[in-house]
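Journal club prep — side note

Before the paper discussion, L.F. wants everyone to see what a predicted structure for a comparable chain looks like in token form. Sequence:
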Amino acid sequence: MQARKFTRNPTDAPVSFTINGMIGEHQHYLKDLSQGGLCIKSHGCIRPGTQLHISVPFFNETRSIRCKITWCLPLDDAQYLLGVEFENITAQSAIVSKFLGEIAYLDEHHQSSLR
């Protein structure tokens, strides 16, 4: 069994992405995320190797993180899990850190509102 490089953190935060070569933005929910990538709950399978751009909102602009699908597994009849790896993590480290921080903030705020 192969050990993971990064610890995965569970979340159900929404995520938006575009697929290279296709028009339109897709909105789904995360299952978990780490410094190396994330897992998305999807309504369809996306072929491994497909490149994505995850949308990351900053104050008055939206940036994107370049990623690629590494695996796709059926969850049930209507959903799939997509394994997504951040590409060129060194060059994108500031955007990835901001994205992970925003998701952690959203999760913390959501949990405190349930109390």
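L.F.'s comment for the group: The chain has a mean pLDDT of 83. Keep this in mind when we get to the figures.
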